[in-house]
């Protein structure tokens, strides 16, 4: 019989920010549920008397997919949270309650993790590559539809998408501020080098007890950035007439 989880957490993120890597790390602890892109069908039509209990029941398949041992985890993109907030505002007599408080009526003990990627140019190149090839994870290599070598990115489009992604992150930040939420923050560039350490820190944030020498399940996801990605990065900076800071630093190092 399906049951409501005792603890819920959301990985708040934008596409290509490392959410799959963080989700894998947390799932591999065996203690943090099955965080992934658990989406829901639109609950239409609304009707008089539709309650939070009804909403929980409708969400139950998603909760079951993302739960393990009473812990539910999921990735959360801003458009989904925005849509969910509107539904909850319709369902629940707010009476001054914040959206965060209303979320807690549906998701027991909700916690929020804010995942960002500092290098937005690389994030956009990763995004363009995934859209072009239809390969979003290393495990989906068989789905490839286009050669990365044939991809050409318009620097203006890259700049536009960077602004869009920053706006999405700002929307999350407003949600946190307006609802008095203090998320646990993870930066992709640090996650790459501190895979297990970051997962353990998230467990501590969630209040999930774990042994000091927790044994992780084997990693599956592999690095997708390669020489073709490097070439797209070079083309972008060349079109902008910019020398990447990393090249300047490398040049100084080699000179010394």
Describe this protein's structure.
The protein is an alpha/beta fold. The longest helix has 24 residues, at 155-178. The protein has one domain: P-loop containing nucleotide triphosphate hydrolases (Rossmann fold, 3-Layer(aba) Sandwich), CATH 3.40.50.300. Helix 1 (19-27) crosses helix 8 and helix 5 packs across helix 6 (155-178). It contains ten helices and five strands. The termini are far apart. Strands 2-3-1-4-5 form a five-stranded mixed sheet, sandwiched between helices.
Q: What brief labels describe this structure?
A:
five-stranded mixed β-sheet, Rossmann fold, globular, 10 helices, alpha/beta, disordered C terminus, 256 residues, 11% strand
Brief sketch in words of this structure:
The protein contains 10 helices and 5 strands, in the order βααββααβααβαααα. The model is unreliable at 248-256 (pLDDT under 50).
